Amino acid sequence: MRHRLPRRAPTLSIVAGIVLALVAGVGAVRAVWSDALSASAEDPSRVERVGLGDRADRAADPRAQRCGGAALSAPRELRGIWITTVENIDWPSRPGLPAEQIKAEYLGWLDLAVQRNLNAVFVHVRPSGDALWPSQYAPWSEWITGVRGQGPGFDLMQWMIDETHKRNLEFHAWFNPYRGSQPAPSGSGPDINALAPDHPLRKHPEWAIVYPSVGTTGSRLHFNPGIPEARKFVEDSMLEAVQKYDVDGVHFDDFFYQYPVGKQDYPDEAAYRQYGNGMSKADWRRDNVNKLVQEMSQRIKQLKPWVKFGISPFGIWRNSSTDPAGSPTRGLQSYDDIYADTRLWVRAQWLDYIVPQLYWNIGFDVADYAKLVPWWVDVVKTTRVQLYIGQADYRVGQSGPFSDPGELDRELALNRTYPQVTGSVHFSAKNVRADALGSVSKYAAHFYSTPAFPPVMKWLPGNAPAAPALKSAADGDNVRLSWTGKGVSSAVYRVEGTTARLVATRRGGDGDYTGPKGTYCVTELDRSWNESPPAG
């Protein structure tokens, strides 16, 4: 993904320079934090969590639920990682591996998620007009087998989802809607004839856009967002995965129209003349993207109402110097430069969640993390859309502010001061595993020390299960629990003083758990994380 991680900075135009400055943090100056907030990162007991437990959003009032006289307490926040397949950034480690190694590497990412008490993975299943499943709309991705259009010999998507759900993690299928190829030499670049034989752009070359132009670094193929038939095909190709598989979410990142390269305009003049309908070209392009987002929102819910739909856009909608409603920033503007009206998508509630990529440090003068978080909080505040933050684990260890292993720790501490921020997604998996400078261990100890449930989305179908039937038996210095129930998953709480804290989750309504002697309770949850009364 993520803007610029696989990108190759094709020119040093003013716009591209700003983007690079934003991502690299060139010239950033760290803001001076108050003693209280700085101390809170080192002493998590001093973080004002604004009721992270209070954000439980249970089907029943959590304060009415008791376990041995103690109130139930479970964090409710989305904790995720992006697992990137394009150019084998995260997984598989290289194309053409044996099936067993492909599987072993994926299981390693799930083990990492469980170890760090995460509860969701965002897996790149449509990197560039291709698919990680046997599709009638797209060829198999070259990043799996090394051969465009050749599959691994088994249904990879089904296997991934099964293994992810076994560990009680959500599986969000991450799609790039309009990318048609990756730049050469690793991808086929702008050459249609270099695509897989069954690639849809070979069958419909009239849908293809080359941008940036041939001969420019990073040149590649795109599906033209301005052609209604192309948009419908792209939607159908993604919805095929929703229809065939038990995904928990449909997820887009920030690539709709390509980020601008120098002074090159996107070559869609013919489609604009045919379909522009009197709009300015910029408004027409935004309308094309808006239609994709709105139509996908409607079609996902018609197909499977419980599947979540979310987007992770570039972190700046517009600068306040351009629009008084914009953020106090001075960077590239998604509304103007890539035709993504991200604020509209939230205000219209086409999304279930939004994950702005806030890949900048606290105090960065061009795009200050500490100013962008409250701006996005204000955007979602009067909507039902949940706000998660895209965290820049990939930047840890770079020169400047991210050479401090505490930068992300302070950012997560800041997030906790806003009840509207209900989660984070970390880019990317390999950086979470690398734990550069001990940064991940630092923030995980402070903020991810126990399991957590994803927040409930009350507008999705839900029906809290009945409490399970629970048995317990002494086992030396331990207690052995076993239970049966009707939930999609189940949860174990242990009483600590006046609070019963979440200590484990299990997939399925039946389960077992062994822990040190004490008082325990077990609850059941449906697939939307609505929770039963406790048994115990």
Automatic annotation (TrEMBL):
<feature type="domain" description="Glycosyl hydrolase-like 10">
    <location>
        <begin position="77"/>
        <end position="399"/>
    </location>
</feature>
<protein>
    <submittedName>
        <fullName>Family 10 glycosylhydrolase</fullName>
    </submittedName>
</protein>
<keyword id="KW-0732">Signal</keyword>
<dbReference type="InterPro" id="IPR052177">
    <property type="entry name" value="Divisome_Glycosyl_Hydrolase"/>
</dbReference>
<dbReference type="InterPro" id="IPR017853">
    <property type="entry name" value="GH"/>
</dbReference>
<dbReference type="Pfam" id="PF02638">
    <property type="entry name" value="GHL10"/>
</dbReference>
<dbReference type="InterPro" id="IPR003790">
    <property type="entry name" value="GHL10"/>
</dbReference>
